[in-house]
């Protein structure tokens, strides 16, 4: 039994409470979903359950958290690690070695498990999770989904009874998400307690036993699976929750049926490879016009992020030609005329406040203060304008980097997984803002695995497969079936 009794917590750098008066009971073997808007306190609850609060994150804690009748506050982290395993949104943040086999065994080594027992656990984990193809591989060469599998396997080998996961699907393609679902189903069938904080709900609909909806740092409601699945679309939208049945969504932003608008950007036979490595992109041909919002899709490892880096000039193509307008544009020129919002928001946050972040490097823009204020209001960031960006939640940071891109006003905007960590309400805000930007004649590229975001936002789809354009079509009612096929959805 896991129990939170009237728990209040505020982080050291924040006067406001992140969670307030939390009361929660989780039975052994339950599969529990924590959901709610970005910043509602989901991650804080996971940290209370795995002991990172108060043993790692400092702040003011009132109330008690118990596991098997023992106070988590009184337990050492190494004691908790034998009971509770944690899997974070970015698996790289919990890797300690450089190859997969060593990483799976690391948790056992760290706990001093005898070698014979460690090898038994390693074999059991690899067999149960069907990881044989991933053994003896470099962690640096794995896809996002493969990294997530190894992170879960390392926890599994440690032998905990409770698994706590924080948005594990945020950076995964549909295939990797399905594989994650299968791993979670395996944990549930083995009788483990699973607590997962998520925005993307559809892949969990057949697994959850209880849904805990959080709002403003409190538990606002609890549902069993049946009542949660029966929730109306309007109620779900009012709560800021993502869709449960994405295959039933209709298009909210329809593309054109005619030819591509006059080209402002053109790739001709573009290719790229790292020195001594295989071709990541090969023979890439693409024309993009002003006002388009082009969704770049494809499985993890298809070359999407490399494609984005070439577009914006962070790396130079090895062969081929890239033109802006009617003339070739070298990497340096593309860098000046484009802006790339990376998947990891922390890499692009530099100042002491959100308001300063939006103004950084834009001091010469006319009406800067007005533009910053308007963009913060549109993306729901005004409340945080004086906050240090590092103190924000993952979804809030993501919105800040998107806001910076909008203020920059580049002609070509490229977003890499812009909805990672965003709830439904903020996903729609971002969709609306990108549509506004495109209407001003900008060309927008969105690298995304988020089907729900695509049907709300994109006018065209370019699917990459093995470094080439595998599909390229305008998004409209007649092509929706083709989009569903790419995501392996059926009605």
TrEMBL record:
GO terms for molecular function: ATP binding; hydrolase activity. InterPro entries: AAA+_ATPase, ABC_transporter-like_ATP-bd, ABC_transporter-like_CS, ABC_transpr_CbiO/EcfA_su, ECF_ABC_transporter_ATP-bd, P-loop_NTPase. It holds the Pfam family ABC_tran. Its EC number is 3.6.3.-. Keywords: ATP-binding, Cell membrane, Hydrolase, Membrane, Nucleotide-binding, Repeat, Translocase, Transport. It is a peripheral membrane protein. Gene3D superfamilies: P-loop containing nucleotide triphosphate hydrolases. The keyword Phosphoprotein does not apply. Its main location: membrane. It is found in: Cell membrane. Belongs to the ABC transporter superfamily. Probably part of an ABC transporter complex. Responsible for energy coupling to the transport system. PANTHER family: ABC TRANSPORTER ATP-BINDING COMPONENT, HEAVY METAL TRANSPORTER. This is HMP/thiamine import ATP-binding protein YkoD. It comes from Sporomusa sphaeroides DSM 2875. The lineage of its organism: Bacteria, Bacillati, Bacillota, Negativicutes, Selenomonadales. The gene is ykoD_3.
């Amino acid at each position: 039994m896991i129990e939170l009794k009237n728990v209040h917590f505020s982080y050291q750098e924040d006067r406001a409470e992140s969670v307030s008066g939390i009361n929660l009971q989780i039975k052994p073997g339950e599969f529990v979903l924590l959901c709610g808007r970005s910043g509602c306190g989901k991650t804080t609850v996971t940290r209370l359950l795995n002991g990172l609060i108060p043993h790692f994150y400092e702040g003011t804690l009132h109330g008690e958290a118990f596991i098997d009748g023992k106070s988590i506050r009184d337990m050492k982290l190494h004691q908790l690690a034998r009971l509770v395993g944690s899997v974070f949104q970015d698996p790289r943040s919990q890797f300690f070695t450089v190859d997969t086999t060593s990483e799976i065994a690391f948790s056992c080594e760290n706990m001093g498990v005898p070698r014979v027992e460690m090898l038994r656990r390693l074999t059991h984990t690899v067999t149960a999770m069907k990881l044989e193809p991933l053994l003896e591989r470099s962690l640096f060469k794995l896809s996002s989904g493969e990294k997530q599998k190894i992170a879960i396997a390392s926890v599994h080998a440690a032998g905990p009874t409770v698994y706590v996961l924080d948005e594990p699907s945020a950076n995964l393609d549909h295939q990797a998400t399905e594989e994650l679902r299968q791993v979670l189903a395996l944990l549930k069938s083995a009788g483990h307690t699973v607590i997962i904080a998520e925005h993307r709900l559809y892949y969990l609909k057949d697994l959850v036993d209880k849904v805990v909806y959080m709002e403003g740092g409190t538990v606002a409601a609890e549902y069993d699976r049946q009542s949660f699945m029966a929730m109306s679309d309007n109620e779900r939208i009012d709560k800021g929750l993502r869709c449960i049945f994405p295959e039933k969504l209709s298009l909210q932003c329809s593309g054109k049926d005619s030819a591509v608008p006059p080209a402002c950007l053109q790739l001709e036979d573009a290719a790229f490879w790292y020195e001594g490595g295989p071709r990541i992109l090969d023979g890439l041909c693409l024309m993009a016009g002003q006002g388009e919002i082009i969704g770049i899709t494809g499985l993890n490892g298809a070359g999407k992020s490399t494609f984005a880096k070439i577009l914006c000039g962070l790396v130079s193509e090895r062969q081929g030609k890239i033109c802006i307008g009617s003339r070739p544009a070298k990497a340096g020129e593309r860098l000046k005329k484009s802006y790339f919002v990376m998947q990891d928001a922390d890499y692009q946050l530099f100042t002491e406040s959100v308001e300063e972040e939006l103004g950084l490097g834009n001091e010469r823009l006319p009406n800067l203060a007005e533009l910053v204020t308007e963009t913060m209001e549109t993306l729901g960031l005004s409340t945080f304008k004086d906050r240090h960006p590092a103190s924000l939640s993952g979804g809030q940071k993501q919105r800040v980097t998107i806001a910076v891109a909008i203020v920059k006003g580049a002609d070509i905007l490229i977003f890499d997984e812009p909805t990672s960590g965003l709830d439904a309400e903020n996903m729609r805000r971002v969709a609306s803002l990108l549509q506004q930007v495109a209407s001003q004649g900008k060309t927008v590229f969105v690298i995304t695995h988020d089907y729900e975001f695509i049907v709300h936002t994109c006018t065209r789809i370019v699917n990459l497969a093995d470094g080439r354009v595998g599909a390229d079509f305008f998004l409209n009612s007649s092509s929706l079936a083709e989009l569903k096929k790419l995501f392996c959805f059926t009605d």
